Amino acid sequence: MPIKKYIPLLLLLMPLFVQAQEQWTARWIGLDTLSASNQWIAYTQKAVRTTKKKQMITRIATDSKYMLVVNGKLVVREGQLKRGPNPQDTYYDEIDIGPFLQKGENDIMVITWFWGKEGFAHKNSGRNGLLFQCEDTAFNSNTSWKARRMKEYYSPDGIQPNFRLAETNVGFDASKTDTETWQQVIDFGAPPVAPWHQLVKRDIPFFRESELKNYIGEPAKKGDTLICRLPYNAQVTPAFKIIAPAGIKIQLLTDNYLTAGNPELASVRTEYITREGEQSFETPAWMNGHFVKYVMPQAVKILSLQYRESGYDTKLAGTFHSSDSALNTLWQKAQRTLYVNMRDNYFDCPDRERALWWGDVAIEIGETFYALDTNVNQLSRKAIRNLVDWQAPDSSLYAPIPAGNWRQELPQQMLAAIHGMETYFLYTGDTATMRYVYPAVKRYLSLWKTDERGMIIHRKGGWDLPDWGTNIDASLLDNAWYIVAARAVITMASLSNDKSYATQLEKQIEKITYASRQYCLRDGVYRSPDYQGETDDRANAMAVIAGIARQSDYPAIIRLLKTARHASPYMEKYVLESLFAMNAPGEALERMKSRYQVMIDNQYTTLNELFDDNKGGTNNHAWSGGPLTLLSQYACGVVPLKPGYERYLVKPMPGGLSVVGGSHETIKGRIAVQYTKTGYGMKLELNVLPETSMVVAVPYEEGQKVVVNNKDAFVSGGFIPIIGLTWIGIENGYMYFSTNVKGKYVFETY
């Protein structure tokens, strides 16, 4: 076709094209075309403010982290996300520096920390560079900027962070501060340019940080080591103020520095060499633990030891309480474990790996809705988008990502990830994200095939790991996980108006369900035909959750789950969930306490990676927190029925607890629920959110009277109409009502 046919369209699109090209007017600058690892470079510019605008939006990008100082004031302590919105591109930050600028000349300094190594959560660009673009173009990065190598920072000898971490140890020699001269920078070009390529706006908030805090009590002393106690497991940057002679070496690390004491699993530490006299220092490298260790020789006089806590910008807004103190402790430890496993992204653990393993993340996302405020939804959305944006050319999904040294698919965890996406949608109603990920998850699901029986063909992937432990019925788990993921994709297909694929998946689910029942059901429980081990608790639990198991199978499965103990803390969440789903809350809580008792009783404020007294694992592992979700969702009984809490259910399943209650933030407001067993029946207190409708299931025994807000609602003769309240019926020990009238409600039975 002749090109002139498209000229009007090209002219129409030209302004958009020009705008996209002119979006970046600043230049990438640096000192090296190839940069050494653990390199620190300070960049500076002095410029006169040319506009009177109070707001001055500035975009900043680097690899790997930066600190921003404006007119001598620290504005950003830890800027930049770990690199990798996708395998090629780089994040940038956006911040208003207007409040920190003054009339006339202003001094801008950006201190960059280039790790220069790959990791399970970071893609190395290979170059230290800086991009600084301001609404006032006088401040834009270009060859008028100067830079200096910060030789005061160095790489300490000895044990290095293990290969999973992109972060490096930090060494700081106070005698070498400001010894290097400022140099002319190199112009690397305007974005998009290699090796940083396209720039993607940071999609989570800047990290929350406290002022410097004092430790709990006096430090314990062991030789030259001072052990300072934190109030709980936290992400911290230790600090000190001292008087010392020159040349003294000080070490900063935590009790979580070596997982199980293994140097091959080392996290990060900091080393400091003193100059003579009074001096203070705070490491820029966050670390975590219950204790901070300062290795300080006797020649050092300590003026103060402190720490700064930091982390993802969300509040621990959820609460839970019950008549069982052990369950209360478990919920609180799970909440603390969740928070210590969040920063640039979700982690499996904050010390050994800091990596987004999606088996852990699927559980973490579920916890967030009951434990934290809604600011956390941005982190969940980032994790979901990262997963699909790193999809491999063969359509497989793999995690952890962003990654520079990992490419292996864990197939069942990827199916769990899709299930986690649906959980996110149910609680947020974020249709746009579901439509965004749908093409990728559709391609991924197409990789899974069935055999001539209709059973899923096992995918080993790069790492064939359905769970830790033994007696894993992988074939049955494949079928169950596929069904769970396929249901989530049906939801996405419906949102994307792909009705034909939704119908195809529905038929596929029917086929796999039928085959699983035909070939795996034995004496009321499920075992794959080729499986030789002990009957798997996790596989039977997933058969319940996937809908493979029928209600007539429940008694035998419940009996199995009373004794079988094969699941790790990762899959234990689904085992416990299946018991609630089979209307066996007492058995669920009994098993929960039995399996988690060691973690409940130990000295940690977080949950272990393993059940066997944590031999070899971490003491702060994300996949162990499933009980938090279950206690809030089932014991308290609050769960959305329609996406975004448009309609939600309150159905307490106390399982023998005399009191159970809690509260949490939703996108529609805060929900609070409390169930209390009384001498005359029970009391259920709750609130109905505005712009929602609620279904409440009141625990009920035949012959009881139900009173709502001190008015009779149900007596022997039936329902007594109350304005705004609809009676639904009685089923399986519950009486159901609905309402869309906001306010507080008290349901009582007599």
Automatic annotation (TrEMBL):
Superkingdom of this protein's organism: Bacteria
Keywords tagged on the record: Hydrolase, Signal
A Pfam entry, by short name: Bac_rhamnosid6H
Signal sequence segment: 1-20
KW Signal (keyword) present: yes
Ranges where the Alpha-L-rhamnosidase C-terminal domain occurs: 637-710
Domain Alpha-L-rhamnosidase six-hairpin glycosidase: 317-633
Family matches, as InterPro entries: 6-hairpin_glycosidase_sf, 6hp_glycosidase-like_sf, Bac_rhamnosid6H, Bac_rhamnosid_C
Protein name: Glycoside hydrolase
Protein's organism: Chitinophaga fulva
Classification of source organism: Bacteria, Pseudomonadati, Bacteroidota, Chitinophagia, Chitinophagales
